[in-house]
Amino acid sequence: LLVLVLAALAALRLGCRSWAFSALRLVTFDLDDTLWPQDPVVGRANAAMAEELRRAGAASIGADDVAAEMRAIRHSLPTKISYSELRRQGIAKVLERAGSTPSSADALAASIFEAWLRARHDAAEDLLFEGVAGALAAIRSDHPDAVVGAITNSRANPFAVPSLAPLFDFTVSGEDANIFPHRKPSPVIFEFALERAASLSGKWAASDLRGNSWVHVGDDLPNDVGAAADAGARAVWIADDGAAVGNTEGRSYSTATPEEQAKRLHAAQVARDKMAARIRSVVELAQLLRDWIAESAGNDWDPDGEQRATCAALKIDRWGAEGST
């Protein structure tokens, strides 16, 4: 029986290798909770916002009040609203409650939002996960022809983070006017990223990048793993022992309803089977890519997902072993 089990595992490993790639052309990253911790970064931005509110004469109003207004606004609207506009409207509402006229509240809200955004970028620089910049530099050194991009739903921007700015070629956001409301997990934002990367490469079409040589890395199972895999990427999940499985429950800035949270949890459970590998941090990515290329041995990607389905029970786990997750 043991011999049969070992033989089956060996065959499964060979099958998994058949959808490895031989060259990296595109690597894309989520930003929040992938390159830096989201909660502390947003916390610092909210503290800066509270200080600006105090200067505007609304000292009794804090970030929780703005978040409450944001939830109320979002749930009252018949159409989708970007988080940037939602935050600006939330700030304006609390300023009106503090005595500002609607016109002055709108002007102040725009200024306070920009202060919030600057503080967010500054905090991202200060709170980068250890080794991230060096890891990205190593990937660029190993794969000098590869395009490096960011795909985010937030207003995070690697070009506003000095340590990361020279390491990225492009960023796309679900908040961008030409993408909203097609945020992750919509395939639209991934298609847009592929087109941007192809244009920047000067030698590949988007179809050349999909599947064969594209890796996407992120912490969110539905948005980064499931959606990226469906778009044609090898999806790498960043997760530690205590990783939450696909929800923002308990985060004060979240405007998601309980029903939306339940839907995300189900999507996360489905997405988990689509990941190509799981790593603790971006620091482990360079070695993972080297291993995949070494293992490819000229085998082709499996575009129909048959090998991927076969390999679902045998993920590459950078925590020390290749085995079941």
Structural overview:
This protein has helices at 2-17, 38-55, 63-76, 83-97, 102-126, 132-142, 187-201, 206-209, 221-231, 258-271, 285-296, 306-310, and strands at residues 26-29, 147-152, 170-173, 214-218, 234-238, 277-279, 315-317, 321-323. By secondary structure, the chain is α/β, with parallel strands linked by helices. It contains 12 helices and 8 strands. Strands 3-2-1-4-5-6-7-8 form an 8-stranded mixed sheet, covered by helices on one side. Helices cover 49% and strands 10% of the residues. The radius of gyration is 21 Å and the shape is elongated.
Beta-strand portion reads: 5-15%
Mean pLDDT: 85
Number of helices: 12
> How are helices and strands ordered from N to C?
HEHHHHHEEHHEHEHEHHEE
Uncertain runs with pLDDT below 50, 5 residues or more? 3-18, 246-253, 298-325
**Which descriptor suits the 3D outline?**
elongated
State the total count of DSSP E strands. Answer: 8
- CA radius of gyration: 21 Å
| Class from helix and strand fractions | alpha/beta
State the end-to-end distance: 23 Å
- Main beta sheet, described? 8 strands, mixed
Q: What's the arrangement of strands in the largest beta sheet?
A: 3-2-1-4-5-6-7-8
Helical residue percent band? 40-55%
What's the helix and strand layout?
Blueprint: H1 2-17, E1 26-29, H2 38-55, H3 63-76, H4 83-97, H5 102-126, H6 132-142, E2 147-152, E3 170-173, H7 187-201, H8 206-209, E4 214-218, H9 221-231, E5 234-238, H10 258-271, E6 277-279, H11 285-296, H12 306-310, E7 315-317, E8 321-323
Helix pairs in contact: 2-5, 3-4, 4-5, 9-10
